[in-house]
Amino acid sequence: MYIIKPLLKLLLALVIAAILVTGSLLGFLTITEYKPAAQEAVNVTHSSSSTPITPGTPFSVLTWNIGYGALGSDTDFFMDGGKHVTPSSKQKVTNNLTAISDQLIAMQPTIAFLQEVDQDSKRTYDIDQTAYFQQRLTSYRTAYTPNFKVGYVPYPWPPIGRVDSGLMTLTATSVNSATRIALPNPFTWPKRTANLKRCLLVTRIPVSGSDKELVAINLHLEAYDDGSGKEAQTKKLFEILEQEAQAGNYVIAGGDFNQTFNSIDISGYPVLKDRWQPGTIDVSTLADNYQTLMDNSVPSCRSLDQPLDTAESKDPADFQYYVIDGFLVSNNITVNSFSTQDLQFENSDHNPLLLNVTLQ
After folding, report:
1. Strand partners, 153
2. Beta strand 213-220 with 250-256: parallel, antiparallel or unpaired?
3. Residue 145: what pLDDT?
4. Cβ 46 vs Cβ 141: under 8 Å
């Protein structure tokens, strides 16, 4: 009896402490929750040079989810069934960022859409990746907006911690404006407080000799939801695309859709048991105004359930690959070439996609 009472007191004290800690964490996340407006102006940095966009002159556009410089071929990730939360060293992140920026310099896209760019995150050792790219790619104007901004993500263990990450668009052109447009959020409180706030980064670029604009839309749609978030965000994207088409603007939307267009054959990449399942986008509603581009000859994304460089098999029948990155291009733009760049996922869990086009 004398032993039981102290144990009960200790147990009660532990329960009360757990309640207080949980309550304090929820209070902190609720008070500090990132709550962007429906639309927000985004600052555009200046560069030393710019290339005009002119009808009849080809130019290139790249999209690349860079995996915050932490998801190279030697990495797995807990959300996909792997073990790791953060990369093992700051040097690995720096090495990946160097290799990624080297590829950007080599490919020289006129416009680049980057997703998962960390600005101030514990998971990437507080490296300001926006500043890194600005320093290495000095001929580009840049725009950045967050879509994952949380003071402390409390899961898994060890926890992710502070995250400030988002979309970055680089342009070797003049820019009229850049805007963050919020997308529907499928999560409710309290899960919403420590989750992503998806958005579009819309950059408006003047076109020589025209009163129309080139509207460049950088996107990264929902991943780990029940499917309703992807559908709602895709619907919002399509509404904006139709508005811009009706206005007669030139439009290129590109990024990580976390879905596959129903217009392409992905039978070469069957979804294996217990792997993450991408959604499917019915692109038929855009058929009158847009070209839908995904490349099934090379996967654009790999699973992170295990490191790729130690996988027993890299065959699509045994290792999970996806085609979930792509472009939507208005019909007043001629597509000269389009392909996924096969970089073997060495420095990111996504391959970049390169598009060459000409405004009609």
Report:
1. 161
2. parallel
3. 98
4. yes
Distance of CA 115 to the CA centre of its chain: 3
Residue 212 to residue 205: CA distance in whole angstroms: 9
Burial 45-62 (b: 16+ CB within 10 A, else e): eebeebeebeeeeebbbb
Please state whether beta strands 161-171 and 141-153 pair in parallel, antiparallel, or not at all (unpaired): antiparallel
Enter the pTM of the model: 0.94
* Residues making up the chain, counted from first to last: 360
The H or E element containing residue 241 is: helix 228-246
Tens digit of each residue's pLDDT (9 = 90 or more) over 145-175: 999 999 999 988 889 999 999 999 999 999 9
Tell me the three state secondary structure of residue 212: coil
The answer to whether 110 and 52 have CB atoms below 8 angstroms apart is no
> Of 128, 123, 139, 141, which Cα lies nearest the Cα of 97?
128
Structure tokens given for 180: 């963050």
Alpha helices in 108-170 (DSSP H): 129-136
Q: Would you say 121 and 163 are in contact if contact means Cβ atoms under 8 Å apart?
A: yes
Query: What are 58's two structure tokens?
Result: 């080809």
Peptide bond into 6 cis (omega under 30): no
| CB atoms near residue 38 (< 10 Å) | 9
In angstroms, the CA 92 to CA 347 distance is 9
pLDDT digits (tens, 9 = 90+) for 188-199: 898 899 899 999
Q: For the segment 12-51, what is each residue's pLDDT rounded down to a tens digit?
A: 767 776 677 677 767 878 888 999 999 999 999 987 677 8
Q: How many angstroms separate the CA atoms of 181 and 42, rounded? A: 10
Distance, CA of 65 to CA of 256 (rounded, Å): 7
**Residues 79-100: b if buried by 16+ CB within 10 A, e if exposed:** ebeeeebbbeeeebbeebbebb
C-alpha distances in Å from residue 319, one per residue of 114, 157, 271, 273, 275: 25, 26, 9, 11, 10
